[in-house]
Prior knowledge:
The structure is a homodimer. Chain A is α/β, with parallel strands linked by helices. Chain A has 2 domains: 6-44 and 287-392, Aspartate Aminotransferase, domain 1, CATH 3.90.1150; 58-279, Aspartate Aminotransferase, domain 2 (3-Layer(aba) Sandwich), CATH 3.40.640.10. Chain A is built from 13 helices and 12 strands. A 7-stranded mixed β-sheet of chain A has the order 2-8-7-6-5-3-4, sandwiched between helices. In chain A, helix 3 crosses helix 10 (270-279). In chain A, 54% of the residues are buried.
Amino acid sequence: MLSISQRGAAMPASPIRKLVPYAEAAKQRGTRVYHLNIGQPDIETPPQVLDAVRHSDFKVLEYSHSAGNESYRRKLVQYYHSVGVEVNHQQIIVTTGGSEAILFGFMACLDAGDEVIIPEPFYANYNGFAVAAGVTVVPVTAQIDTGFALPPIAEFEKLITPRTRAIVICNPNNPTGYLYSRAELESLKELVVRHGLYLFSDEAYREFSYTGELLSVLHLQGADEHLVVMDTISKRYSACGARLGALVTKNQAVLDAAMKFAQARLSPPSFAQIAGEAAIDLPADYFEGTKAEYQRRRDLVVRRLNEMPGVYCPNPGGAFYAMARLPIDDSDAFCQWLLEHFSYQGATVMLAPATGFYGTPGLGKQEVRLAYVLNLEALDAAMDCLAEALKVYPGRR
Amino acid sequence: MLSISQRGAAMPASPIRKLVPYAEAAKQRGTRVYHLNIGQPDIETPPQVLDAVRHSDFKVLEYSHSAGNESYRRKLVQYYHSVGVEVNHQQIIVTTGGSEAILFGFMACLDAGDEVIIPEPFYANYNGFAVAAGVTVVPVTAQIDTGFALPPIAEFEKLITPRTRAIVICNPNNPTGYLYSRAELESLKELVVRHGLYLFSDEAYREFSYTGELLSVLHLQGADEHLVVMDTISKRYSACGARLGALVTKNQAVLDAAMKFAQARLSPPSFAQIAGEAAIDLPADYFEGTKAEYQRRRDLVVRRLNEMPGVYCPNPGGAFYAMARLPIDDSDAFCQWLLEHFSYQGATVMLAPATGFYGTPGLGKQEVRLAYVLNLEALDAAMDCLAEALKVYPGRR
Lengths: 397, 397
């Protein structure tokens, strides 16, 4: 009889969503809420990017090529060249956000019942795409005490079964901000080659690398067939609402299979491709400004966190997230309490409990993720709130 | 070892795509190609819709709500009210094109191994979404001699198994242009209620109804839990490149499940929602102009086709497609021959072989689909080409 699908039931709800009603109630009480819970930057989208859309003069808003406009793909070739990645326009499928690149990668490479190994904590929506594709996520735990470095390769090896098909990384990492080193990427490459696996690399935050070189898995040599990059302009140009990403690989069979999924949904959004094409022509120093701003924010947040008694926050090398260990009983309860029962100078802070980023039940109860997507003044005030909150939280340990 | 997924291999390629290289070669030889093969209208997108985007003045291109901007959903409530459908904004999930509405509907309601019954010929991409969801499409054949009317309910009943979960219709129909009557929709409603099935209704062409009343399955009474509408602005406002659609249902469990898939992909495109919102404010007579234009085109194409010896084309009641039976051996071979070996007064015509729209192997070999998306003059010239081609085609029967 009439019921939703098992996968619809198994599909995880957003781990942050359950806190939204508490945030809304806090605002209705007149409390200011500092949103450090989501990766929506306050950085302005470059005017040149928005103006390209605003000054467009076509008459019919047509479908584009299913792989994206060839003119945009050729521009992307230039962009990848500028970051040291040599691909041609036929090795790029333009997608509706990085989300669709993840979905196409999973659909093209993985079958129901297959397993993917993902270092945890990881971007919670990988769970969603895994459920959509019928794939099992097998977590391998990264430790806050090593700054969330890549777990030892031996830990990956232990988890490989005949159903393992891929390893998924996000670099620089959401939610930890960890920037994988070239040595770590090389060790992953050797692992996937040795075991005949795919290495999916979500590089949404590629430009936001503060402590090391900007690295893509496509810089790795001798493993082209194994490497699939999921990319997006959302964070790079503060253009999350464009919904424009790309799947990039030199594996022709994967391109051919992904292309069939791309054809089924007809085309990626046309307005966004105009914006994306203009973005490639931004001045070469565009990222320096945004990177410097994010680095100042990171420095502030990490310093303030580590000054709080009992708090530990490793210094993230990239992206715009920090994971902190707090002296609390339960991060879900704490984040809800912050919204429901706490305010300091008329304000409180919304954080993401880390439990939503772990696949292993029970992990993340002392950790929260902070997205430093607000200006320095707001971040400083948010840190004041958190410091005061930790003094009075009933579940403090 | 490294290989693509079975579902990637099973995924059907676009049935028209294999003809594209022949069309490109024809153009390189200097032959004009009349494209009646795809549903990309030449009708201009209403300037008010494009101007809303061009005159927007936000600074940050942000994610929207995962269900779409509330302001847009409230506008859509007005739109649905204007076509006699009463829903509230929480019964609408804004999607990235009608394509994503189909995907979310399938994912939320169907599991791998489940079956959906679809009257054939049907929109070929349903196959793609079915493969993505692991679902089996069971075709029930509509006959050209009845104008592709709904097959008798008894034919559906014969195909229902314990794994049958849904019936999918497209109304008005792509590829046949058939407009289901109220009586046909009522009989489908009784069927899905009796067997505990979903009725998915793709209503992309809702406004393009020439011979009868504009009907949505949401006009049906007493079956709210069973009815899921997949909608899009692509054809309605000639805005295919926006990639903006909607899943509409009064079934709360389906909404809740679909919403989790919507959250995983974060949000639908933001530019498109600005366009979509402006479209609701178009003058009430906007559709009269486009409908009258399409009706003139339909009348021309159907008359010209039926004047050709051995050709039969039922008069479609809606959408902008016609299916014609031609005196030919094989529609795939014929459509390729038109591009590869034929021209008349420097031009030829690109058609869609009907084989791609049937699930039953062997059907559609004498049929082609024509999209009347060009102006009257071009359509007339295209019909001249087709008439001449049928006189000389070596595979004529």
